[in-house]
Amino acid sequence: MRADLLTDPVDGLDEVLAAVDGFDEVLVAGLLRPQPAQAHGLAVLAEAVAGSPLAARVAEAAEKTAAGAAGEDHFVALAAARTALLGSVHDALVLRVEEAVGRPRDEQSAATAGDAEHAVNLLTAARSWLCDVARAGWQGIDHELVGGAAPVVSAMLPDAALRRLATLLDGFAAELAASCPGATLERVPVRRWADLWSRAMLLTVPGAAASAPGVTEATGRLLPLGVDVQEHATAVQAQVHAVFEPAGGGTPRLVRASVSAPKPDTVVGAGLWQLLRPHMSLLAAVSEGRAMELDAMPVTCEGDLIWDDARARTGEPAEVFATARVALPTAAAFPTAPLDRHPARIAVPVLLEGYAVEEGEDGVAFQVAGQRLAVDTDRVPAAGPLTPEVVASSAACVGLLRWDAGEFLVQPLAVERSVRKKSVAVHAGAWAGGTTDKAGVRAEKAATDAVTVLRERAGRLLRK
Predict the structure, then answer these.
(1) What span, in angstroms and rounded, lies between the C-alpha atoms of 328 and 255?
(2) Among 130-144, 261-275, 277-291, where is mean pLDDT lowest?
(3) Contact at 8 Å (CB) between 176 and 148?
(4) Can you list the pairs that 204-207 forms with residues at least 24 positions away whose Cβ atoms lie under 8 Å?
(5) Spatial distance between the Cα atoms of 456 and 461, rounded to a whole number of angstroms
(6) In the predicted model, what is the mean pLDDT of residues 220-241?
(7) DSSP bridge pairs for 218
(8) Torsion sign (Cα): 362, 366, 372, 376
(9) CA 75, 81, 82: angle at the middle one, nearest 5?
(10) What is the tally of helices (H) and strands (E) in the chain?
(11) Model pTM score
(12) Distance between CA 324 and CA 346 in Å, rounded?
């Protein structure tokens, strides 16, 4: 891997991010009565897209907003400009990663599903609420304002075509509600809330649903690489990254398969797998180190498998590092849909070998070909045997290359290390299908006890 390409600066990147940050700060105080500093942030955003098809509309939107006379269409234009800028950052970084790892590039654009009929009045209502939030700014939110999203979300949820936006609005409103009143906030998640606001604004545009990725079918062999676990207080998701080899030959592809479930906040660690296993047989295959044979499995044109256990069966043994050494180098990634182009979406499977390990106050890092690559051990889940200490003693790593806070870093999914002169692999998802490991067994028992108690209490409440 050309690690030097991951540390070299990307032309124009800092300027684009500065324009995005300037607009994000504008949203903190709100767009109702913009101050001179906010007007400057709007002008910089318009200047950043001056050479694009958005130029005229964004320039008008920035001028009207700075004067406090912006309408909903102007806010949509500003959201589009911000999204386009971050999309350009995504594209530049992905191109740099492809050059660094030497992986084949897919020149096709992501296919999209046909547009569906849905209630324009609900889209208008959602856009109106988002505009009210933008006028108030993050420092001006209160429970009355945030609560305005609830009836819109309730009306949207029964319509499958609007559920994507409804879910986004519901989560966004919940975050805002938990932070009310905004005037008392000591720290504002500026980038995150601007991301959510911009994405939601664009999804309120009639026809935006047509940008949802289309679905085809995949038949062939699936070779797992590792599991990324994302946990919140009330929900958990496991995303399996894998190489798919089409039946009858063809280019191997990088794919993902995800499963999520609601959870009580008392279920943590290895207990999470109990909530996820019943919904995806792939987790057992990952734990056992086996491939899976797929038969017409639905897959989006972005590479996300819509998992159906009826269309999959367990295959032959498939060791992760063998897959990474043999199949991964030739696997091509699916293209990314326009609205999904964002630096936070970058998660490229890579194999690293022959590195030296650095440990310091700022965490673990790998020295790869003379270049320092930070290791994001905070993303290593507690639901498996992989720990920062194990990562620090490794000699090879299969991980996800990500970009955060201005630099590339690697999230370990599995590592190889030497134990008594033997090479041993340790996987983040090793307990996904069950385990005999003492620590894993204890954690699962504790989770089982917690779930049993919660079910008993819920039963008592229902009986009353």
Answers:
(1) 11
(2) 261-275
(3) no
(4) 204/76, 204/123, 204/124, 204/126, 204/127, 204/130, 204/165, 205/76, 205/123, 206/120, 206/123, 207/115
(5) 9
(6) 92
(7) 297
(8) negative
(9) 90
(10) 15, 14
(11) 0.89
(12) 19
Residue 463: band (very low, low, confident or very high) from pLDDT cuts 50, 70, 90: low
Instruction: Give the confidence band of 105 by pLDDT, cuts at 50, 70, 90.
Output: low
H/E segment holding residue 197: helix 190-203
114: exposed, middle or buried (C-beta count within 10 Å: 0-12, 13-18, 19+)? exposed
What is the rounded average pLDDT of the residues 382-400?
93
Q: Rg for the chain (alpha carbons), in Å?
A: 24
Q: What angle do CA 180, 181, 184 make, to 5 degrees?
A: 115
Question: What local confidence, expressed as pLDDT, does residue 137 receive?
Answer: 96
Q: Do residues 231 and 268 touch, judged by C-beta distance below 8 A?
A: yes
pLDDT at position 435: 76
CA distance 5 to 357: 20
Where residue 115 falls among pLDDT bands split at 50, 70, 90?
Answer: very low
Residue whose token pair is 């709007």: 42
- Write the DSSP string, 415-447: EEEEETTEEEEEETTTTTT----HHHHHHHHHH
How much is the pLDDT for 114? 47
pLDDT band at 448 (very low <50, low <70, confident <90, very high): confident
How open is the CA angle 314-226-107, to the nearest 5 degrees?
95
What is the spatial distance between Cα 375 and Cα 9, in angstroms, rounded to a whole number?
Answer: 19
Name the one residue in this structure whose structure tokens are 């996800």. 400
